[in-house]
Amino acid sequence: LMAAALLRGRLSAFLAGGSAVFLASLWAGEKESIQAASAPAAPNTAPSLAQNSMGGPIIPPSEIMRFGFPSNENVRYHPGYVVSYNTKHKTANWVLESLTKERSRLKNADRKQCDFLVDESFHEFFRALNSDYKGSGFDRGHLANAANQRWDQRAMCDTFYLSNMSPQVGKGFNRDIWNRLEQWVRQLNDVYSRVTVCTGPLFMPTREADGKSYIKYEVIGSSQVAVPTHFFKAVVCENDGRPPEIMVFLMPNRVVPDSSPLSEFLVPLETVERAAGFLLFERLDQRYKQVRRDTTGRLSMVDLPPPPSRK
Fold it and tell me: 301: exposed, middle or buried (C-beta count within 10 Å: 0-12, 13-18, 19+)?
């Protein structure tokens, strides 16, 4: 079933004119990708930068998806990330990236050369538009982060598709605490050879005065792009010869004091899975799916140098 879903996703991208994502997906060949979707996770191998049929570098989808697909809804492949898109909300269900020490050293891209783009691989009824965000009060917030793709210009610019964006509160969230989390995740490559990152929006309930819980969210623009109540970022950190470690962050989409420690937003993996409606890193051995804790049993982060402060 998963293999069939992969084929359908690739065919739909091609028919809709999404040649970039189709070629990125096609590069590895159908046989390799189907095997990657159905076989157990491969052991940690050296990261690679392959060439697609147009001569540009891509990360093989089998590397990005080595721990499995959280879901198979409207999956698209890009040179540096994979996205599952929600046509009702006009934002992603999830995005997955593979960050490696090797690629983190490459500085081959300039953000100024990229523009926010409508993702025309989806039917026009289901696309987010730049005009939806104009005057909304929300940023076009990256899910797969642009700075993670500095190893290649095309890979970076592909993160500017609106299918990779969610409406995020700007000052106090996207430009502050969320940005700090993104920088901290990149720093993990100083310690780990590979970091697999899954990021996505959530729509979570709140209890109101009548004692009942409701899921309420704003929509923006003529496309009615849904504004998430929360965002999550889950990471699997790996070094050869050592057990992987998981850390999961859950943040509300609102102004958060910039002095807040990132550790304040650590949650168990199942908190995100229950809210999202899908499982993360399903191929990862169950022994390693418990999030990192300190000696007192509290959720903890990897010890790294302090993240760069925002000036």
Answer: middle
The residues facing 218 across adjacent strands are none
Q: Active-site positions?
A: 142
Run of H or E residues at 200? strand 194-202
Could you tell me the sign of the dihedral formed by the alpha carbons of 32, 36, 41, 46, in that order? positive
Using CB atoms within 10 A of its CB, is residue 210 exposed (0-12), middle (13-18) or buried (19+)?
exposed
* Calculated CA dihedral for residues 21, 27, 31, 33, nearest 10 degrees: -50
Q: What's the predicted TM-score (pTM) here?
A: 0.81
Cβ-based burial of 97 (10 A; exposed 0-12, middle 13-18, buried ≥19): buried
Q: Where are the alpha helices (DSSP H) in the chain?
A: 2-15, 19-26, 30-38, 61-64, 101-104, 130-133, 153-158, 177-187, 269-276
User: Structure tokens of 44?
Assistant: 């940690």
Return the SS3 of 161. Answer: strand
103-114 burial, b if ≥16 CB within 10 A, otherwise e? bbeeeebeeeeb
Residue type, 75: V
Q: What is the mean pLDDT of residues 12-33?
A: 42
Q: Where residue 8 falls among pLDDT bands split at 50, 70, 90?
A: very low
